[in-house]
Amino acid sequence: MSRVSKPYEIVERALELSTTDGLVVIADEHSSANLRWAGNALTTNGVTRGRTLTVIATVDGAKGTASGVVSRSAVTTDDLEPLVRAAEAAARGAGPAEDAQPLVSGVPSSPDFTDAPAETGSEVFADFAPALGDAFARARSGGRELYGFANHELTSTYLGTSTGLRLRHDQPTGTLELNAKSPDRTRSAWAGRSTRDFKDVDPAALDAELAQRLRWAERRIDLPAGRYETLLPPTAVADLLIYQLWSSTARDAVEGRTVFSKPGGGTRLGETLAPLPLTLRSDPHAPGLESAPFVIAHSSGDSGSVFDNGLPLAPTDWVREGKLERLTTTRHTAALTGLPVAPAIDNLVLDGGGERSLEEMVAATTGRALLLTCLWYIREVDPATLLLTGLTRDGVYLVEDGAVVGEVNNFRFNESPVDLLSRASEAGRTEKTLPREWGDWFTRAAMPALRIPDFNMSSVSQGV
């Protein structure tokens, strides 16, 4: 009969079964809890549990080291040997891995490696759910309907290697998305929040914010496409700069394929990208945005390598005081490009030195400007300039002399985040935010609002 072992036991047993030159084992224990609601009433809730085991085997050959990666869900002790053998067979059947490096060693073990995995459950919503119920009541009395969902996940990752690494990380991830609609569904407003535990989420404040936006939308103003002074809220800034981070691999820049490539060869490292003192950084220990302090790579790609599993991560400035400081590298691409090792980290912060909130930036506006809610359906048009296109959604508002005077139509935009940094005239106060477009993949972000004097609304969109 199969026995479902503790995660660390699964890792240790898989390592014992290895017959190849090297082995990396990653056990991910997942748990999640969620709430969904529509029309001011809860509709569903649920709790899930699961396990995924990834085995990475390496084989040294005359022409280099090959790797084989196999992942399976719901692994028990009886499943282990076939899984390890499958990874070893994949490695033996593969050619030399381009990113091959010696497996990481010498990293102190996590003291809680043998502890049970952390788990989430419905109790994470103990304070949030009653407050959400109160928000439903206020929305009903105010003639609006609330829709949305709250999701909390907790993943305990156990990483062991044949070089002696025994590392553990617990990652909580919480997201809230809330839509308010008028009863006739002609007006809609959205707000989202990222959280570790739902203790810092206030449904009453979110409902009040959405109610104000619905009131703004009672007046409709049609505007043509064009360049407008635009206030980008933190969520929109996050979506743009996350894409910039994903596009900042050193190898692609050195080989002349990205916006960070220098004409004639090399990279733009050291160049000034922004006149404002903007610092774009990642830090696994950033308060409220904590992420894994070591590399966890289930596969190799442009910004990660399975051979780097367990490599310690340190605070990294990608842009420092407006200058391009680092491009992402693995150990392999660092050696290839001659640049420092700078692995990707699972959070992103933009500091601009500003103190104003978005509301204060609106009030300080002279003349006419647009205030966005969020961006949607972002796609790359040109990697050489990092030109992106996408849509506005759930509320674009017209600001005149410091006051919001109504809602305008949606637009398609065409902009490069690198160009936006060079043209930003003001950065507000940095705050935690949830990216709307990339919230399923990247939730740990803190951004300021940015004022762009000439944001390019390339065409009018009928999207909502």
Defining key terms:
464 residues; six-stranded antiparallel beta sheet; 20% helix; globular
Would you kindly provide a written description of the structure presented here, covering whatever features stand out?
It is globular, with a radius of gyration of 24 Å. It is built from nine helices and 20 strands. The protein has helices at residues 7-17, 77-92, 128-141, 203-216, 234-246, 250-254, 331-337, 358-363, 417-423, and strands at residues 22-38, 41-61, 64-73, 145-161, 166-181, 188-195, 220-221, 226-232, 279-282, 316-320, 323-324, 348-351, 368-382, 387-400, 403-408, 410-415, 426-427, 431-433, 445-447, 450-461. Strand 5 and strand 6 form a beta hairpin. A six-stranded antiparallel beta sheet has the order 3-2-1-4-5-6. It has 464 residues and is of the alpha+beta class.
Query: Number of DSSP helices?
Result: 9
Give the distance, in angstroms, between the N- and C-terminal Cα atoms.
54 Å
Q: How are helices and strands ordered from N to C?
A: HEEEHHEEEHEEHHEEEHEHEEEEHEEEE
Total beta strands? 20
Mean pLDDT: 96
The largest sheet, given as strand count, sense and whether it forms a barrel, is:
6 strands, antiparallel
Rg over alpha carbons: 24 Å
So what's the overall shape?
Answer: globular
Low-confidence stretches: none
| Alpha-beta classification | alpha+beta
Report strand %.
35-45%
Strand order of the largest sheet: 3-2-1-4-5-6
Helix content: 10-25%
